[in-house]
């Protein structure tokens, strides 16, 4: 039976906001969650942090001068150590590292980062948690649609793309399903996917504007989807998972654009304060 976390969920606004409305460190929230959640539910939050680990692993592997992101499950020391002895990493990471060291391409001409991401999505789409599965199905579809939009932009206009478009797309698309097949085959403005992906028109419309506006719309779409997947689980792990995703979005915008970040933060806090009432007896 799913467990409810009445007081933890009700106390989330106090966890992230102080009197000056500064966001607490993401890892401080995770440490609190680790104490409050049972092991099975904490695995949901762990899965949501794996994309951060993937980026850190790739950065260490190809010696990118990119700042280590501490929001993942593995420390910087653990990632660096795993390049020599990967036994403690997740299985899909070990598969990737083995193939990378043997100079084997697992999936066509994809970059090392996308080779790793392909393995990652395969793992997440069979995750025990329905929330994790549905979130990463959405995330994968969004990623592939964004790659397709960028390919179209880079090659001028769709009528002149021809085989060049196909080649560019094949080297960026992850996974094989009805969505990727439609992206690779279709020349329609919406890839023929408006029925399957109701949010695609919203994304295509904003892609025609300024880059910042487009990026805000992408994060707003993630923001909305994180909430939509919660359903009626007001005090369950699904609400905490959606909060985790939104907190990561808030943190991103606090670094890029403080005004946008604070608007997101206020929206997150108001939602939490107004939506939940702890049942009597708890």
Task: Walk me through what this model shows.
The chain is mainly alpha-helical and 282 residues long. Helices cover 64% and strands 0% of the residues. The protein has helices at residues 6-10, 12-16, 26-36, 39-61, 76-82, 91-101, 112-124, 130-154, 162-170, 178-185, 200-206, 211-228, 237-256, 258-275. Helix 4 (39-61) runs parallel beside helix 13 (237-256). The two termini are 18 Å apart.
Which sheet architecture does the biggest sheet show? none
Strand content: under 5%
Q: H/E element string?
A: HHHHHHHHHHHHHH
The helix/strand class is mainly alpha
Q: What's the Cα radius of gyration?
A: 20 Å
Instruction: Report how far the terminal alpha carbons are from each other.
Output: 18 Å
Give the overall pLDDT as a whole number. 86
What form results from the Cα inertia axes? globular
Number of helices: 14
Roughly how much helix do the residues carry, as a percent range?
55-70%
How many strands?
0
- Unreliable residue runs: 157-161
